[in-house]
């Protein structure tokens, strides 16, 4: 909504999204907030009938995104992460939480690029459950989980569930593997079937990878995998950073760089966050 001098200009305006160079909507922060302008000098560029903005952007576009980015980060840093019921963990805008052993990140390229340089592994969990208790899992200290809730790999297949973007190593039940990858099945294109390699299997599971996925694996030994995790999932997938293609605006990245620095993994313990990000808790206090 846009309001000026106490009058609602319109409740939905055409330029309600921030502009990104890629011109797509898979961005960390897409929508602008409700904007209320006090414009006694009549500077705000409105059309003659005052029904909408006479410009593609606000005159204060960069300042607005800066403030929205600060608000976003403040809410992330004060988020009480529930590891027993991760469906409770909702964050603003278009971001998703990725879970680690002692802390979390969000799926912004700023955090992801930082962790890739530190050789973290990214593991996608697909589960048909509405929530997942991560306290029951024992995570490697260099592993980050992306959990996809309420997703079922069934006869109507999303290709990305079985052949993720950016290459992957995938554990799937043998029954589902045979349904989708058998020679007689027409559920997947032939190029996908020809572009995988089986690395391990037993009576219950198959581990395969997309060709050219060469990251060292912790999935390969089925016998050593967490049985509690296997019972709760449809599939476990080692994925590359290229799986995540959400864009973060340069202005938002600059805010992250200023306050997060290279402490990419945000601790679950809020008291530890205050020690790790003192500048953020001091300067962003009005947003917390």
Outline the structure in words.
The protein is of the alpha+beta class. Helix content is 25%, strand content 19%. It is built from 9 helices and 12 strands. The protein has helices at 61-77, 109-117, 159-162, 174-181, 190-193, 227-232, 250-259, 270-276, 278-283; strands at residues 2-4, 7-10, 35-37, 97-99, 103-106, 121-126, 143-148, 168-173, 196-201, 205-210, 235-239, 266-267. The protein has a 6-stranded mixed sheet with strand order 7-6-11-8-10-9. A 3-stranded mixed sheet has the order 2-1-3, with no helix packed on it. The chain has a 3-stranded antiparallel sheet with strand order 4-5-12. A hairpin with a 3-residue loop joins strand 4 and strand 5 (103-106). Helix 1 (61-77) crosses helix 7. The longest helix is centred in the N-terminal third of the chain and has 17 residues, at 61-77. The radius of gyration is 23 Å and the shape is globular. The two termini are 23 Å apart.
């Amino acid at each position: 909504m846009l309001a000026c001098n106490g009058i609602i200009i319109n409740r939905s305006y055409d330029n309600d999204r921030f502009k990104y160079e890629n011109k797509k909507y898979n961005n960390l922060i897409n929508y602008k907030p409700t904007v209320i302008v006090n414009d006694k000098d009549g500077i705000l560029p409105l059309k003659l009938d005052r029904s909408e903005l006479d410009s593609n952007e606000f005159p204060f576009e960069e300042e607005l995104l800066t403030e929205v980015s600060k608000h976003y980060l403040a809410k992330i840093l004060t988020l009480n992460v529930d590891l027993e019921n991760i469906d409770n963990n909702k964050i603003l805008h278009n971001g998703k939480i990725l879970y680690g052993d002692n802390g979390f990140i969000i799926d912004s390229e700023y955090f992801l690029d930082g962790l890739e340089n530190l050789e973290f592994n990214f593991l996608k969990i697909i589960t048909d459950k509405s929530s997942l208790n991560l306290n029951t899992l024992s995570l490697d200290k260099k592993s980050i989980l992306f959990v996809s809730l309420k997703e079922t790999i069934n006869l109507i297949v999303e290709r990305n569930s079985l052949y993720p973007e950016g290459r992957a190593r995938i554990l799937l039940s043998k029954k589902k593997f045979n349904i989708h990858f058998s020679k007689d099945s027409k559920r997947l294109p032939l190029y996908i079937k020809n572009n995988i390699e089986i690395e391990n299997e037993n009576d219950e599971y198959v581990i395969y990878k997309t060709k050219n996925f060469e990251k060292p694996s912790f999935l390969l030994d089925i016998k050593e995998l967490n049985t509690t995790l296997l019972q709760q999932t449809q599939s476990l997938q080692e994925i590359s950073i290229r799986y995540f293609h959400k864009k973060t605006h340069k202005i938002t990245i600059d805010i992250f760089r200023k306050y997060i620095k290279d402490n990419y993994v945000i601790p679950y313990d809020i008291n530890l966050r205050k020690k790790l990000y003192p500048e953020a808790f001091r300067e962003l206090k009005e947003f917390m």
